[in-house]
Amino acid sequence: MMRKYVWIIVSLFILELIPSACSAQYVIKVLPRWMFSTHLDYMLPQSPVDRFLDADDWGYRFEFQYRLQYNKPFLAGLYLSEAGLSKYELNYILYDPDGAISVREKANTRRLEFGLTAGFYPEINWLLQPYVQGRVGMAVYQSSSILTDDDSDENIERISEMTSSVLAYGMDFGIHIVPNIWYLRGDVRVGFVANPSGTFLSLNEENAGSTGHPIEYFEQHTSSANWLKFSVGLSYLF
Known about the structure:
By secondary structure, this protein is mostly beta strands. Helices cover 7% and strands 64% of the residues. The protein has a single domain (30-87, 110-145, 161-237), classed as Beta Barrel (Porin), CATH 2.40.160.20. Mean pLDDT is 89; it is low at 12-24.
C-alpha cells in the first residue's frame, strides 16, 4: 500500500513539472507600412574597374521604404549611399607671414549614389526571412583635396577637383533576422552595385610619392563599374 502512495506522489510531481500550456509564435496579421534601414557596405571591385581601384572599398547606405499595398509584401522608396574609392594623404609644413603651419592634406574620390528602390519582402513568420531588392538611380563620383591644420585639426580648405555623374543600378538578396522584438531586425545582404561607363579620378599607387600634393598622384579613368557587395545592418518597421 505504501508503494502505491509513493507512485501517486511521484506521478503528481512529474505532472507538475510538465508545462500545461505552450505559447506558439506570434502570428502577424497587419504588416507595418514603413521600413527604415541602415547598412555598412563592403564592396569588391569587379572587372574592368578593379584595374583602377583597391579591393577594400567601404561605405554606408540608408533606405526609407513604404508598403505599396495594405498587408502586401511589396515595398518601394528612396535610398542614399556613399563609398570611399581612393585616398592618399601627405603631411608638410606650410610657411606664411604669420608662421609655420603643419598641414595634413588628403585627396580622395568617393562615390555617392541615390535613387529609387523596390523589393519583395514575404513575411514567412520565422526567425529568418529572405527577400530580394532592386535599385536604380544616379551615381556621382566626387574627387576633392582637403587641407587640415594637423595641430588643431581645423579644416583649412576644401578644393573640388572633379565631379561626374552617371546612371546606377543594383540588386540585393537579403535575409532579415527576426528577434523577439519583431519590428527591429538584423539585416544581411549580398548583391551588386553597377553603373555604365563614367569618368573618375583614382590613385596610382605605383607612382605615389611623398612630395607635392596628393591629388597629383591621381589619374583620370573612363570605365564602367561593377562591385560585388556585402552588407550588414538593421531594419526598423513601423
